[in-house]
Write a structure and sequence with these properties.
By secondary structure, the protein is α/β, with parallel strands linked by helices. The protein has a 9-stranded mixed sheet with strand order 14-13-15-16-12-17-18-19-20, sandwiched between helices. It has a 5-stranded mixed sheet with strand order 6-5-7-8-9, with helices on both faces. It has a 4-stranded antiparallel sheet with strand order 1-2-3-4, covered by helices on one side. It is elongated and about 85 Å long. The chain starts with a helix and ends in an 11-residue tail after the last strand.
Length: 478
């Protein structure tokens, strides 16, 4: 059992008095054997613990308990900055370096940001600090943590730490260079979002998650659609062609394939209709045909990947600032990585006095694009086209066919359309199909797609699409 304390003091270089003060103890864990216990306290009382095997890197935690931040009582004491780490040992290292208000996420961080709830719950206490220092791990997951904290604490002073080369986290710095170097790194933490902007070189770029493109994970859809996190797209289509139906289908499959949550701001679709659509996609049956037990099971499954915005009509307009607040909540609070805003014309657009509608739309779409980047999500704006000449043949509308502004073409990173088409066959019959056309791709290298289209067949009972296959092969050859 003494080996556990040696590991903490001699290998991890933690002070024995600090370990005792924080209640870290050796114990026998039923699944780990000899282990070190890191207590989780609230108002001075322990309510859970995290356990680390003495002889190997194997962690367990108290079952059946939702843990908050490690050392969360420190948020109520003192008046210095709060430091957020990804591990209990890192928090102890920061405390040893002189920053007593160090806390740790209960189970580290991941690139999808699925562990943000504990930060949202602690928002008020974090805002009470003069500033917050994000001291996460130097890896792909840790790179996305500073921006997430800054978004949750929008308007508050949030800073990030750069660790020395070869160091992954706070404890690495303590072990290799000592308390003084760790304190220096924390002291020199840089603000994530200084007013107006800032300038860096190449080697001191602020941490950020790698650019990520969300896909449906199915052919032929991945040849025409891709939703980049931090960008905006525009979808349009001819009346009755199924813009909303297709966008719901696409969002559902993005959520399933990518393991992310999606949000619907569907102003022309009743929430119960959206629920039924998603239910058919999930289990192949209408919601009304499910038993109460089946509804509970399907609902619980969909709750993990879907959020729906509901409008109320008693306290103001549903304008651009309202849309911003909904996008912020969906992206930052609920972790949605794809948000469908459908349709554009259902927002209440209020240009400034003397401002043309063209100038207003250019500004509004620029704002939405910036919110997508700031809040680390993708916003897909669905917009109705103006009446188009067809010359006897339907064609896919583009951003230039949406009323009032060419910005619908110029601003998005990706543009796509849904329309219905028909083609005569050799046997005299006519094939009818749904066409999804990609008319703009800003970054073809990243998205790995080119402008083009895909022919689809729509199944209304399942609310699903598949690659079109002509019935011509079944014609008689007699």
């Amino acid at each position: 059992m003494t080996d556990g304390m040696k590991w903490l003091t001699e290998v991890r270089k933690l002070d024995a008095d600090l370990i005792a003060h924080m209640g870290v103890k050796l114990t026998q864990h039923p699944g780990l054997g000899a282990a070190v216990a890191f207590p989780y306290r609230r108002n001075g009382q322990g309510y859970a613990a995290k356990f680390r095997a003495v002889d190997r890197k194997d962690w367990r935690s108290t079952q059946g308990v939702t843990r908050g931040l490690f050392n969360e009582d420190a948020l109520k004491a003192g008046d210095g900055p709060v430091v957020i780490t990804e591990g209990e040992i890192d928090a102890l290292s920061v405390i040893q370096a002189g920053y007593s208000r160090a806390v740790s996420l209960p189970d580290g961080w991941n690139e999808d940001g699925g562990k943000r709830d504990v930060l949202v719950s602690a928002e008020a206490a974090l805002r009470a600090s003069p500033w917050v220092i994000v001291a996460g791990d130097n890896d792909a997951a840790g790179a996305s943590l500073p921006k997430t904290v800054a978004n949750i604490l929008a308007g508050h002073d949030v800073r990030y730490v750069a660790w020395p080369a070869g160091c992954k986290d706070a404890n690495d710095v303590l072990v290799r260079f000592g308390e003084g170097e760790l304190a220096r790194c924390l002291l020199e933490a840089k603000r994530i979002d200084p007013a107006g902007g800032f300038i860096t070189g190449i080697t001191d770029l602020p941490p950020a998650a790698d650019r990520r493109v969300l896909r449906l994970g199915m052919k032929p859809f991945d040849f025409v659609l891709a939703f980049e996190i931090g960008a905006m797209s525009v979808g349009t289509g001819t009346p009755g062609a199924g813009k909303s139906t297709f966008s719901t289908f696409a969002a559902y499959h993005v959520a399933k394939h990518e393991g992310v949550r999606v949000g619907f701001m569907s102003f022309e679709t009743h929430p119960h209709r959206t629920r039924d659509h998603l239910c058919r996609l999930e289990c192949g049956k209408p919601w009304a045909d499910l038993s109460a037990r089946q509804q509970a099971e399907v609902g619980a499954t969909l709750d993990r990947s879907v959020r729906i915005v509901h409008r109320t009509f008693d306290d103001g307009a549903h304008h651009l600032e309202w849309a911003k607040s909904m996008i912020y909540t969906l992206a930052v609070r609920d972790g949605c990585k794809l948000i469908i805003l459908d349709p554009w014309n259902e927002l209440e657009h209020m240009p400034m006095p003397g401002e043309s509608m063209t100038a207003y739309i250019n500004f509004a779409l620029q704002q939405i694009r910036q919110w997508a980047e700031q809040y680390d999500t993708h916003v897909c704006v669905i917009a109705h086209p103006k009446k188009m000449p067809t010359d006897g043949k339907p064609r896919a509308p583009t951003g230039y066919d949406i009323a009032d502004s060419a910005a619908f073409f110029n601003k998005p990173a990706l543009g796509w359309s849904v329309f219905q088409d028909r083609k005569p066959r050799e046997d005299g019959e006519v094939d009818e199909f749904v066409m999804v056309e990609c008319w703009k791709v800003r970054d073809r290298q990243l998205y790995d797609i080119d402008p083009g289209g895909a022919k689809l067949t729509f199944n209304p009972s399942l609310m699903t699409y598949r690659a079109f296959q002509s019935d011509e092969r079944y014609r008689s050859h007699a």
